[in-house]
Amino acid sequence: MKSARLVVTLPPVLRGAEALRFATDARSLGADMLEVRTDLHPADAVDAAALARILELLVSERGVPLPPAWVAAARWVDRDVVHASALDAPAGKLLASHHADRPLKTDEALRLWEGPLPEGALVKHVEPLGEPSAARIAELLETQRRLGERFGAERVTVLTMGPIALPVRAVLSRRNLLEYVAIGGDWKAAPGQRLLLDAAREARAPAREGRLGILGTSIAHSRSPRIHPQPFDRIDLAEDAPVEALVDALLPHYRGFAITSPFKPRLARHTGASIDAINTLVRRGDHWESFNTDTEGARAVLERLGGGDLFVLGDGGVGAALRAAASERDHLRFLRRASISEPLKGTGLWTWPDRIAPPETLRLEGARVAVIAYGAPARRIATEITRRGGVPLLLGAAWFIAQARRQRALWETAT
């Protein structure tokens, strides 16, 4: 199956030379097309012809009429079938779009597209996701299928939006002409967009049935999408997201998930696990089976530290893995934030996520402290350990590789 063409949207703060650099960077990262929208940029802020020499240009009319120079430079011209004054565009350039304000049944969605379209026009249909369920995802896929029957599958894009829409957009992308993605950072053109790098990685990989993904909060740094088989989705959710309903809704489409903070305890309870926290889900027919491969990571780190008497900063999901991995000669002293008052000596492990500030009372008198995060979060934690008088030991890679190797083996057994 041919991959969707990857579209990035020009952020509203970029003008002139900065816009050209953005387009060049996006192309180098795997983007196929650049979108410029009239609600984000005034006509004189964009050199459409110069941008089109770098990437194919998609110009979108959003409340403000499209400048003629933009239309002349564009490969595609997006006009909303409800709000545009007319569905006019140069021959072969029209992308007709509809943005519904609520989730629709397939028959409702198709009625929006009963009117005639110019020959060769593309079709883009967008709906909010609403509450996640297997039935809701099936409805969107059916809308996509039937629009493809009406207009030709090679001309259709169906998108959904919302704070938990990313994995559903990923499922839809397998049969879409276009996939709108984010370049990274704080700004996205729409909620639910995947990162360009993640989508480009999938596009380069051999097609495979059943997706994988990582579920967590603040996981832009995660290396899982880079080392695991594709397609692998980075699903970054708010702490209060309905993650239980989401994983159940995605069961027909994903063969496994990596679970990270803060969802390890919640999904352990949801799946009836015998342990307090899990980090891996594997599809078993009509249900999820849960595991904690962090035990493998914990064992690797404890071996590096030499075992013995160790303090552990925090007692969350990682604590369960450390307890399971500890041998008879290991003595682990778990310290919650409120219980830390005296300076700490010896050797320990820092298990608090990077986004959680340590207590002000924490002091380390030359203590060696293992950091089990990696990348930028690990560097920030290491700086904090040094500031408080400790010696950081960066063991996140050892933990990550050991647990990820076991995850991969488990996902290969999915049914």
From TrEMBL:
Species of origin: Cystobacter ferrugineus
Entry protein name: Shikimate dehydrogenase
Give the UniProt record's GO annotations in the biological process aspect: chorismate biosynthetic process; shikimate metabolic process
Query: GO: which molecular function terms?
Result: shikimate 3-dehydrogenase (NADP+) activity
Q: Which SUPFAM superfamilies match?
A: Aminoacid dehydrogenase-like, N-terminal domain
For this protein, the record's PANTHER family field holds: BIFUNCTIONAL 3-DEHYDROQUINATE DEHYDRATASE_SHIKIMATE DEHYDROGENASE, CHLOROPLASTIC, SHIKIMATE DEHYDROGENASE
